[in-house]
């Protein structure tokens, strides 16, 4: 089957427009999102008996080393990031 030049040109033009629209859609998806939405923050108070492991638990949640942990005197505040939220933990010693 032989196509005329007009039909072939129309097919190329349609393919070019489709390709341009796809590239533009990918560009917008990758570059034009803007900053991610802010994660919600929650305040948590951590209380317990002396030597119960409050500071050790917070150190593990924050991916800090558990070597040389000393008892908390007064209070300590740490932000524990999670994928969907941030916990602001206030630990009372």
From TrEMBL:
Entry keyword set: GTP-binding, Nucleotide-binding
Gene3D superfamilies to which the protein is assigned, alphabetical: P-loop containing nucleotide triphosphate hydrolases (3.40.50.300)
Pfam families listed in its UniProt record: Arf (PF00025)
Highest taxon, organism lineage: Eukaryota
Entry protein name: ADP-ribosylation factor-like protein 15
Native source species: Ameca splendens
Species lineage: Eukaryota, Metazoa, Chordata, Craniata, Vertebrata
